[in-house]
């Protein structure tokens, strides 16, 4: 066959030259903007359509974006991008295939697809952009002329889409490499800044020749070493002025695992060395002089604090032991005073003058108040000294509640309060220390009446089973003055009340709630409180029923 038989049709020659030019242009771009412009130019020259759009998958945003297009306004382009996933571009992207609609009016399923364009669409052509089975985008064409797109258009568009996929993937890989390189360079700069700023030093050397290949860090200059002079020098000569450091390097180069603290004049250096896979030995030096000085001072301070703590504990134990031992000697005289005043009132009140009776009653009231204060101090001292012993017994709750009501009734009547008892019938069984339970309830109910005036104080008792164990839950609720959050955080401390004004207005040692907490916990229970100023307080504690 003659060469003339291989002649190429001028139209085909033009197409081949155009495709070659377009391929060269697309392959030569280095950024997404230039890439989009080349694709738009190629589609412009090869496809005679009113609407041309290039949708590419934005991996950062996780959506299809319109990177290039022709034939629509900025508003129409934005609308096309916003609706791309729900319309033809998204459909072709999700299920990669050629979508060709020769005439929309002859395809019932296509007539419901409203276009973002202002003209009437009669023909559509969508082609997926692929690179090694990875879907990277969609090219879309539309025309107002039915049957506009031929097999030749489809073939050309297929060529453009394949070329687009290859170049876009290369661009994405290049951008990712650039990001990684930028991140690595940033990290290296930050690491260098850290090494230059911190009092550390890095040395790398050949274990055989002990020649230094890396010398970095402010720590070298603090030791009086020039990093530039160390590079390439033998460690034996470079570190000759620092015998301890030189010997440590020699031992590490010989294969010893070295991690120790070196005394270098007035400085203390932490030295660690290890060989890495490349065969080189890397040594890290860290100036810990200030840290050692601070640790020594901290050790001395801790020793002083421990000594002071031991002395305080001994003093507290001695105080608690003394008060616990003096319990009988302090309570007996007061009980005698109270007994004799009651005897005087019983025998001589009918014949005595009103003033005499009032004086005796004041003596009795003062003695009872003093006995209550002493009892609080002695109870807490016995608990702190470990001398308070529980005596569990089966408690008759009915009798116990009656005695508690009698003890609290004077305070209730004095403040004009109403007492509400909310308990189950029959009363549940309880085995605990009766003295401790009575003290807890008297403390809580006494406080509730003391801080409530012309209001209500309620005691509720409920039985619950948790994790197979019976519990008795006691709730003491009042409508009194209440407490704030800062006050609530202090109320269970020894010798502490909500604030100083409470102590001045209502009196008391501030030990009642501390003793209550200790009693509840000694019996294996717990206590909590909620309160709001001007509304009232609610104390809830539970005890094991058995």
TrEMBL record:
One term of GO molecular function: ATP binding
Enzyme class: transferase
Assigned keywords, A-Z: ATP-binding, Kinase, Nucleotide-binding, Phosphoprotein, Transferase, Two-component regulatory system
SUPFAM superfamilies: ATPase domain of HSP90 chaperone/DNA topoisomerase II/histidine kinase, GAF domain-like, Homodimeric domain of signal transducing histidine kinase, PYP-like sensor domain (PAS domain)
EC number(s) per entry: 2.7.13.3
InterPro entries, per database record: GAF, GAF-like_dom_sf, HATPase_C_sf, HATPase_dom, His_kinase_dom, HisK_dim/P_dom, HisK_dim/P_sf, PAS-like_dom_sf
Stretches assigned to the Histidine kinase domain: 325-546
Taxonomic superkingdom: Bacteria
Catalytic activity: ATP + protein L-histidine = ADP + protein N-phospho-L-histidine
Signal peptide start-end: none
Keyword Kinase: yes
Keyword Transferase part of the UniProt annotation: yes
Pfam families: GAF, HATPase_c, HisKA
PANTHER family from the UniProt entry: HISTIDINE KINASE 1, TWO-COMPONENT HISTIDINE KINASE
Protein name: histidine kinase
